[in-house]
Structure formats: structure tokens, C-alpha cells
Amino acid sequence: MLDAMQRQLRMDCIASLATMPSLGGKLAGHRIAVVGGTGFVGSWLAEAVTALNDDLGCSVRIDLLGRSAAAWQVAHAHLKRSDVEVHAVDARSPFELPRETTMVVFAAGIADPRVQASDPHRVFETNIFCLDHSLAAAGRLENIHRFVNLSSGLVLGGDLPRRALTETDLGSLDFTRLHNLYAETRRAAESLAGAYASQHRLPLSTARAFTFLGPYQPLDAPWAVNNFIRDALSGHEIRIHGDGATRRSYLYGSDVAGWLLKTLVDGSDGGAYNLGGIEPVTHGDAATWVAARTTPSPQLVYKSLPRDESRNHDFYSDVSHTMKALGVQVTFDVRTSIERSMRWHASRIGAARRVRLDA
Amino acid sequence: MGKHVLISDPTLRDGNHAVRHKISKENFAAYCAAAERAGVPIVEVGHGNGLGASSMLIGECALTDETILRVSRENLSKSKLSIHAIPGFCTIQRHLTMAIELGVDVFRIASHCTEADITQRHIDYVRSKGKEVFGVLMMSHMASPEVLADEARKMQAYGAEGLIIMDSAGAYLPADVTKRISTLVDALSIPVGFHAHNNLGMGIANSVAAVEAGASMIDGSARGFGAGAGNAQLEVLVAVFQQMGYETGIDLYKMLDAADLAEKQMIPSLPYISSTSIVSGMSGVFSGFVKQVNSIGAEHGVDPRDIFFELGRRNAVAGQESLILEVTLQLAQAQKNASAQHA
Amino acid sequence: MTSKKLRVAILGTGNIGTDLLIKVMRSKSLHCSLFVGRNFRSDGMQKASNLGVNISDRGLDAIVQQADDIDLVFDATSATAHLENWSVLERLGKKVIDMTPAKVGKLCVPAINSDEIISARAANINMVTCGGQASVPIANAIASVQNDIEYIEVASSIASRSAGPATRANLDEYIETTELALLKFTGARHAKAILILNPARPPIDMQTTIYAKIANPNLSAIRDSVNDMMKRIIAYVPGYQLIVPPTIEGDKVTTTVKVLGNGDYLPRYAGNLDIINCAAIGIAETIARQGKE
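YS: structure for the whole thing
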């Protein structure tokens, strides 16, 4: 039995999947493995798979591989079913994928800037070795249809144009600086995957994540919107660092899952696809929407920095190539994504009363 | 500084496909001599699948590679003698060393468009012997422009001095060629070449598109003598390039004479675009499937043209003959279901 | 009891070595004392460790140090490395099954010359090539009932994905070794081997066609001989199938076989890798059984 929130997520998946009616047929009979599958992406993919099977007449299986398998199962009891299997795997060592796996999403890696600050070596090892072992494991499968490397838009580097970023806006990256290590590992990972694809004939596509939003994202993950939501739900004022003009695009969890599934079935060999939202939203606006959704409505406090016009902090995606090549659409706007996240987080921390239900 | 196109002439190699590898010694001599007189820069000779490919699998050559090379070498002096070679058929020890000894000037080492890494040792060997070596990617429509560029870069890294892509199935339209050639020209620091087939009547147009996109080497055969629907017709190419202001170094009249000679002496029936050629070109499928597709189609009451299109959809390659039956049975079943619904 | 099994070491922890390991562990007459390579991080090492097998990253040195616990070594490294390995192993008096194309020792196709290998007490046994293991038995079966074979040709198609960097860098060695085995085991005047990498998806199974140019073929004798040989091959290569029985086409007799791998460590379409391993295990088990008598 699904509770109200779980039912909402199911309906969100159905709405996202409704924009790609051919997907169910193409996925039928496949078995998807998600490495690093006990996080946001794996959870949403599992939700999408259950929606496909229960409501859209599909028959697809998913295996989530991760270190925290047992904990995930406890936290996602409603996903304890025969079409969703969870395996305790530490991909930093060589491992094997279930034999009948036909599709692989590599969603592992450490993206948390706090870990990058304190344990950069572990970030490097994890991001590179996990992928290496995943590629080797996929290469041993009978019938691998596609391997999708979930990379990051940050591989584009810096010195970028102040507009929506396409897949080919390749900028420079000062790899001598430690704070760029994460982006550097994702670049090296794309290189590694490409080598594997070329030498071992692995059918590979790359999905570049911009900012995702939605339930299943840990509230303390240090992205701006999460900070705003956490501040609001704790009854504090919402602090915005800078002048709030920095822009991000956001893609909602069920669209992330839908787009990844579409990449698995229709991605081209060597193709790279931005995975992000279509409307750039400033931090100021996002914070305003969070505040509007909170009762009582918190103050917005700007912790200003000297305004430096020359530095571009914007980071948002141009997904026109992805939408055209894969035939996908954005189903959920940012306001709805924020509302969903707030309701989900609120219900988990007992702050449901703080969320304004009317629009 | 004029515009140049380097013509490479595989009449005596690709043409061998059309006559089941039975071009005679006299015709090797005669055509080589005619090509030499016309100033054709590179003359390619041998079994249809190249050096060392005479076999029961593909078809046995009437002459040994050695004989072909000797008689051709005797009749070419300013024109360069060239061979096509596919690793897996052709080895360094048995075939390439012999070819070098017999004075072959140009070695075109070829692989399927996604398998460039099988050519490393062969390209390297030829370079180490001081001969000219080009890399060739066959059935090139089966890879995206980016993948072609990756594979081409491998051949460049191995030492290839030029890179030719082949439209082996005759599947390209001019825009496809433009995209691929310009991608390769951007990616490589060696000259790029194009080998057309005429299944969709695009042999000349595609070759022109290739040159306009930056290709500097073009293949063409006399009267289009070649496998299936034939190659770009060489003497037409020479005429067209002349009209366009490109230098080929080839004497037009003597080229026409060479083509006339080829037609009279060597080509039992001129290449034409058959219905099968059209369909195999459209579907991008290896035309060698024709016999089996026809017979299996007849056996199961399925239109062979439908089988070709389905094979194309499934990216069938040579060696996947078993897929023909599978596809035919599926189509037959679908036909049965469709007619049952209408009943 | 372990003491009754032939104690083997596997040198080389890549795909071939790891697949061999799994087959050895399943064998009733073989025991893996040591699984040796140069890199603990390789997938094969991890697999072996998970299976509880003794592993070492010190290469040949590890075998030298534990020589007393080892009767036979499978060398699944490379042809160049084999030459070095053999010079040491020969001095240690160890039997070696060479999975590489080095061809230092006696060519072995178990369905044909197991007995000869045993009676000659061959110390270095070379397993030819995958295409050789697939085709030479059939070619031999045909040759054994036909006096004079002018020419034998073998064409193998393998999935592109099953051809790793080692195969691709050694196509010529593959062709030459296969042709050598064809000549040796058929007495034909000329032989040709062809290898085609097929990039089709899903990957194709390994398929081999044997062409024999024979003046006056006795088809029924050929078919009987091939059928007998099939039984001997299937005894150690369960996935071996006759797709097209010997058929006369013009001046040639054509036979086509397919090898479906067991899928022990590699996908089943990689029958090319499986067959050479099955053959190696086959001869090793024969040696083991011999040792007990």
C-alpha cells in the first residue's frame, strides 16, 4: 500500500512517462542495473520502473547496486517487490552484474563538496575506480544494449558563455586546483568510458547532469535550493549568499528517471545528452518560492558579497539537443518540483505543518 | 595555386568483383598500359577483396596475386601501383612482404568502419618499409561521423598517410558525404579520400560533394566497373572535375580511350542499377546477401525487398546470413497475422 | 581428495586465465594451486580471491617459489612472455599448456592427438588457436578418409566484441598458427585461414566454415568420419554444433560448425575463447587421468 506521498511520486512518474509512450514497449523484457543505485537517481529509476510495470503494462526489472543496500531497503519498504532488487556492492572493487542485465546506468560517485574538501583522494578513487569496474562488468554481459555514464555538466569547465550550456560548450578546467577535483574526475571518467567503448565495443551514451530536484535528495546536500528548504522547514530565515542573481536550471526526479530510461533505449553510441531543466531560475526566485510555500513565511536574508560582474556563477543547461534526439519533454516546472521536495522533506522531519498546501 | 584531386583507380580491383575475380592477364596488362598513358596517378589491382583474399569463401582468383602484381608492375611506371588489403585475409609475412618485393607503391589497408585497430601492425610494417600507406574504412555508413573520426584517428596514429572512407553499400546521399568528409577533414591531419558506389545513382554527385567538403582523393572505375551497381564512373569524374576547375593530372581523351578499351575488352556487361541494388543501397545492406534473400524470400512467400529493408533496420552485416531466415520468418508471420485480421 | 588431482597453476589473470580457473575448479581431476598475474587490481584476481583460490601478483616468481605444489602450468599470458616463461618452467621440469600462439611445443588438438601428446610425454603443449580448435578436427576427419587433399580453407567469424586487444594485435599469428595446424593434421598441400570480426549486435556466435578441395570426394565416408569426430569433440566442448554437414558444392566439400561458449566467465557468444579453453582442460584432464595409472 502506498501512502499519500508515495502515491504522489507514482503519479509524477506516470505523468513523466506519459510523454514517451513508446518507452514501455522498448523496455519490455530488459533488466536494468544501476551502479550507485541507492541514491537519488536509483530511487527514482526504481519508482519509474514500478510505474511502468504496474500502470503502463510493461515488464522490466531493475537492480540497484550500492554499498548501503540494507539501509535503502528499510527506507524504501514500499519498493520491496520482485521487479526491484537491491545488491550490496562496493564498486571500488571488481564486481559482477546480474547475468541477465541488458542495460546499465552508472550513477555512482561522490558529488558532495564537503567530502571533496576533506577527502579528495577518496573522491578520485571512487569516481574513477567504480566506473572502471562497472565498464569491465558490463563488458562481460551476454547482451548489453546500452551503458549510460551519468556524468556532470561540470565537465564543461569554466570560462563559459553566460547562457544555457550545450553539450559542446567545452571550456577549460584548472586541474591544478583542488576544488576542481570533482569536475576533473568526471572528465577523466568520460575519457575512460570512451576508451572502453572504443576498445571493447561497449555501446555507450553519456548523460550530463545539471541540477536535479525532488524527493529522495538528502536535505543536507549542499545545493542552494536544499539549503533554502532546510532553512524554511526549520523555521529559520532563508539565507541567500550573494545577490541572488545566480541562475540554475532544475530537473525533477521523475523526469530524470524518464530521460535516463529514454537514453538507455534510444541513446546513440558516443552520444552525450544534457540532463537538466529548461528554465533558468535565479536563487532569489527559488528562495522566494520556497518562502511562499512556507507558513509562516520566512524572511529572505541576503548575505551580500561584493558584486563581481566579471565572474559568471550561472550554471544551467540547454537541453534542446536531448529533447530533439531522444524525444523527451520537461513535465514538471520548478515551482512544482520545489513544492514536492518541501512536502516530502517536511513529512520526514515532522514539519508538515510548515508547508503551505494551497497554491 | 590550383585545386587538385588525386584520383585512385580501382578498375582492376573492384572490377574483379563483377567478373568473379577472373580478369585476365592480358587485360591487366592492357588496362594498366592505358591508365599509364592517360596519367592516372594510382592504379589499384587484385582480387576484389584485396591481397590474399582469393579463397573459397569469397571466390577464387583466376590469377595469383604474384602474377597480377608482376604484369601490372611491368605496365606502370609513372602511375603508382596500388593494392587493397584487409587484415584477417592478408598477412604481413605471406602477402605484404611479397607485394613490397614486387614493387607495389601504395598500400591501402582496410577494415570495417568500426575495427580500425586490426590494421595497426600492417600499416606500421608498410611505413617501416618506406612505402606509401593509406587507411580505408569500409561500409562507412554503418558508423556515425564521430565514430568514423575516432577510427580514422587510430589509423592516422598507426602511420596512415591518408584516410579513405568507402560507401560500400552505395547508401549515401550528398549531404551524408558532406557531413562525414568535413568531420574527418577537421579531425585528421592527413588527406581524406572517398570511394563511392552507385546504388542510388549518386556516384558522381557524392564524389563532388566529398571534394567540396575537403576530400583530396577520389576513387573511380572505368565505366564504373565494380561490385554491384558499380563505382563512380571514372571518366565521367575526370570530365566533371575538369569542368569544375580541379586538376587531376589525367589526360581526358586518353582516359576516355582507356574506358573504351575496358568496355570492349574487359567488361562483359556494363554496371547498371538493378532493383536489388536500389533496395540494398536504400537499406544500407551488404549487397552480397542478394542470392540468399531471393531464395529464402521465395521459399516463404516474402517479398525479398521487404527482407532487405528489415535487414537494414537491424544493421545486418556480412556474415550474418542466418539473420536472413530469422527476419523472413518474422515477416511471414506478420503477414499471416495481418491477413488473419482482415479475414 | 586434493592429492589425487593434478595440481595446476594458471599464469595470466586476464579473461582466458580466469575462464580457465572456473573450468579447473569444476573439474574432478584438476586442482588450482595458484592463480598468478602481475596486478592485484585485475578483475580476474578479484574473482579468484572470491573463489578462495591462492593468488599472487609476483608472476612467474610465485610459481618458481611454489614449484613443489605444482604439476602443470597453463600459460595464458602472451607469445613473447611465454618464451621467457618456458625457459624457466622447462628447467623446473614442469609441464606447460601454452594458450598463446608461441608454438614452442607440440600442437595439440585433443580430439585428434591426445594419445600422441601423452605417449610423447610432451612437456610443452600448444593449443593452436580458437579457429584451429574449431576447424582442425573436422579437416582432419575429412582428410582421414580422402587420400589427396589439394587445399583446405577455414574461415571463422567471431563477434567483434569477443576479439580483445590481444586478438587484434595478433591476427597474423592467428592465421599462421591455424594454417600450420591445418597442414600438420590433414596433410593437405596448401592451407588458408581467414578470420572475420563481425560487429553485429547482438553479438554473433562463433561460426567456422571448412572448405576442402578434393578431386573425387566420397561424401558418405566423409560424413561418417565427421560424425565420429563430432562425438570426440563434444566430449570436451559441449557447445560445439554441426550447422551444415559436409556438402559438395562444385569442386569443394563445405562444412560449417558453430561454437556456443559455456558462459563460465565470458559471454556465451565468445565461443572462440571458450573452445580453446575447453581443449586445454580436455588435454589437462587426460594427462591427469594418465598420471593415476
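YS: worth flagging: Residues 120-139 of chain A form the longest helix (20 residues).
IM: good catch. Also Chain A has a mean pLDDT of 93.
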